[in-house]
Amino acid sequence: MAMKRNGKSPASSDSDEEVMFFKDVSLGPHETQLRFRLIHFWEAPNPVKKTLIGLEMLLIDEQVRRFFQK
Question: Which pLDDT tens digit goes with each residue over 19-52?
Fold first, then answer.
């Protein structure tokens, strides 16, 4: 999947595929797509040891977006 010029990945628009929301995620294999928006990405490197201390991501799905757009 190629990146767009604005840094966002294109989402497939196939309407026949089942979409899963975060509230529906469970253990095990699924034949669905999880669509989300990456709101915040932060990583904390340790410059002395040149290792990664931590990684944080904030993701929201379409149900959360619709809630806040009302």
Answer: 788 888 888 887 888 788 888 898 999 999 999 9
Residue 68 three-state SS: helix
- Which residues are paired to 33 by β-bridges? 19
d(CA 57, CA 2): 21
Please state the pTM of the whole predicted model.
0.44
CA distance 62 to 70: 13
What b/e sequence results for 34-47 when a residue is b if at least 16 CB atoms lie within 10 Å of its CB, and e otherwise? Answer: eebeeeeeeeeeee
Domain chopping of the chain, boundaries: 36-70
